[in-house]
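Students often ask what a holo structure prediction actually looks like on paper. The answer is less mysterious than it sounds. You provide the chain, you provide the ligand, and the output is a string of discrete structure tokens encoding the 3D arrangement of the protein together with FE2/S2 (inorganic) cluster.
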Amino acid sequence: MSEHKIELSINGRRQRATVEGRMLLSDFLRVDAGYTGVHVGCEHGVCGACTVIVDGLAVRSCLMLAVQADRCKVTTVEGLAADENSLHPIQQAMRDEHALQCGFCTPGVVMTLAALTGGAEKPDAETLLASMSGHVCRCTGYQGIRRAILKLAGESEAKQP
Amino acid sequence: MTLHVDGAVIGRRLPRKEDARLLTGRGTFVDDVVFPGMLHVAFVRSPIARGRIRSLDISTARDLPGVLAVLTATEIDRFNAKLLTFFFTPPAEFPFPLLARDRVAHVGEPIAMVVAQDRYIAEDAASLVTVEYEEETPVVTIAEAMRAPPIHTGADSNVGAVIGVEQDEDLEAAMASAPYLLTRTVRHQRIAQSPMETRGVVASKQGDELLVHISCQSPHLVARYLSHALDQPHLSIRVIAKDVGGGFGFKNHPWREEMSVIVGCMLLGRPLKWIEDRWENLVAACQAREQEMTVRIGLDRDGKLLASHSDYSLNSGAFPQVPDANVAVHMFMWAAYKMPQCGFYSRAWYSNTAGLGAYRGPWGMESLARETLLDVAARELGIDPVEIRRRNLITKADQPCTTPLGIPLEDITPAECLEKLLEKFDVTAFRAEQAAARQEGRYLGLGIAAYIEPTGAAGSMAPMTGEFVQLRIEPTGTVTALMSTHSQGHGTQSTMAQVIADQLGVAYEDVQVFEGDSSRGGFGPGAAGSRQGVIGGGACRRAAALLKEKVVRVAAHIFNVSAESIAIDNGIVHIAGAEKQARSLRQIAEIAYGEPSRLPPGMESGLEAQYRYDPPPVTYTSAAHACVVEVDVDTGFVKIRRWLSCEDCGTIINPAVVEGQIAGGLAQAIGAVLLEETGYDDRGNPLAVTYKDYLLPSIADVPDFEYLHACTPSQSEGGFRGVGEGGAIIGPPTLVNAIADALAPFGEVPLDLPLTPPKLLAVIEGRPLAKPAEKPATQPMPEPIASPAEEVTPHREAGVLVDGSWKMVLATPMGPQPMTGHFETQGGVLKGTLASDQGSQDFEGTVTGNLLKWEMKVTKPMPLTLKYELLIDGDTLFGKAKLGIFGTAKVTGQRASTTTG
Ligand code: FES
Ligand code: FES
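The corresponding structure tokens follow.
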């Protein structure tokens, strides 16, 4: 089995590791790096629970190998808010709108929405809603997720000059 | 992230306490738990549905570096651990194995477990275990199970459980004389409960202490289950489940894999972790539904119900967690309707498929069958679907009343929910829109359905106890509640805090609710039967009232005022007319804990109370829903355009949580009607093994739901009613009815889920489905199956030898009940005794020739009047007993001895 040295940044901290070639990024983040907010719901790229941000893009960490994250900047749900005592606007909107029940799908949903709204472009509600077709939530019937998105899109539009 | 709220806390959409940790990835799910020296488990599973294991070679696997052990049934069985049902009873007359012994009975069945330093190596090693099988032809469907010899050695047939009778003369007579008889077969496919978090367990043992972290629905129930199943009295068992990623009935109790891991941990003396992957979950775990029901309903020409009989079968799979014939289906089939008489016959069939488990609203087939058939009847009789329900639903004015099966009703409101719904939804306007759309070739449909649901049940079944809370005001002034409840997304940490805050007069943010640990709080079965809001909420109110009373007594004593002048508001203890003397709860608590001499004489120090609340036996929730769909007649795709829910869940604790429960259940209903299916090919190979083939509803499939709340307070403390399962029960018929209404111009939509585009296109294009259904939709009356004893006819001749002892068996919904009967006759009078392990009881009845009749009242499992009617034929007897709510049960018997003289 091949071993690889990798160096990457996770939630703003540089980290070095030696990983087997076959190690999934999801397992590396959960087990080796301890970011258990990365949830694994299917391990075959459908449910979206394992979504993290890699170099600004939302990525399913169960479909990426840890070795592929060498020299990348990775953000997990733990690293999204400004500090321990606050919520990122996506998280806040989801909390206000009761967009979660068991919370298992939640980190993935948050990360996709954060990736899409994190850049200079402010996507409209339709784009954000379409992105949710890649996330399965078994608890909520998506009602609160949809409300949170509409709220976020409204806010992001309102902020534009 | 503070949660400060002002004003009333109950009935408000407060943010949930759970959400801060869950939104930031700081929850603790079972896979997040790690122990030093922990090893990982992967299972070797059967690739075939049925056969004998000829050989099992684990040597190569065991030699792989990193592998600690490969355990098979030989090792695991040394512990003699048992699999039990949710009721802590054996699931069948024969034991279910943990790991397969010499035979396999479904694809995915666990055969061996590899224990290795990580999951990667464990899976490598699992693939190196070689098993040779002698493959046999599997029994896959209900129809096959009916014909085939038993799949389990030691069983006489594939019938795992049976209740009711095929034919009841009175009922048959009522149906035969009905002006209109409707017969349809309704099929519900097999589906996967699919919580987003799969099963998982981390077991560790230190000396005599077994610590189990498990994804479950109640750590208390799991601890009790393990204590029965392991039967190791010296063990101290503690079960923890902090965050659980959805349960829905699927995680009611441990099953084969979890039990094997726990036993493996005890054998090896090392902490073991097993996390089910999604493939295992879809292939090997217990699944849900797969049932069919042939319903006959007699109505008059005005659509008034006269009589009904349902013949119901479930495919239980090989090793079902729920091995019974689901009596609740029949109990609630007509409970909300004025149905003068109804009967049923129910059978659960073993097959070479994954076992049947529970799933949100496990008895929901009753609403699916009833509400869809009512719509068929309405269409055939030319009555409006709203009208047929108005003519038959039980209204508030009809209550109190008792249903023909003996269910007492006091405050159900399905009819009132329907009327409230219709205030918001204009049916006439919709019909105009529908007609106009049809002119344009667009097909809109309206589905309406109503139902009641038993919630908050307690007191009649072993695990369904009251709920418990230990409540204290800490010396710091904050309030701590240790509860028997448990959340897998239900938000009980928040709703229970709302109830406590409201009752105690403290701020929501100052109440902390702890659950998820069997060593805290007390027994409760967790999220089972929509109970936690009702019973846990009641317990919180009662305990908070006790605690408040203590605070008032302490304060009255300290300030030397009367108790009536004390009030607690927002954590401040006020004295009427002496506002300056107001104290915070913390100040009172510091005295209560630290200065016992200042307390009233004889009072226990501290501010603590506990309460176990036992609610009325059942609390009913009612609802009516309406849904509008558009079916694309070119593609067969269904678009849901509108969905309204009007439910009556009594006093609402948090509307956002209530609506969340309804929405979640409705999304699952949409999945079941349109998308989901875990089918099998004819060799018993599962056809949906990933989320690419098992289609769950996505955001695009689920519309915005509109809610109306009726809020009739219940009889239970606080007036709450359960709401966890309703959406999953009422959703399917509402949607099926809408689709059937949309496609009515083309023909009748088969009541055969899921209603996939190919099935709907077959209706639209007027052709039979490629694979014809096994039974025609409308079938003739089933021929009575003659059993030798049924050929016995009553006769009036004297000289039948009745007197003496009889060995009898009563086929109850809970399983066959052996009894000893003793009869003595004197002229036409029959006197006797029936004895079983439940006790013995005398009765008096009549004897006419060879016909014996008597009635007797029992109190267990609930007060019932049993009506026996038996015929004697030589040394055998045969007949039935009417068991009220549990329908009719067969009685058989053999003469044991005769009384002479
Ligand atoms: S776990 Fe990665 S998409 Fe499901
Ligand atoms: S909140 Fe449970 S899966 Fe989304």
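Residues 156-161 of chain A have pLDDT under 50 and may be disordered.
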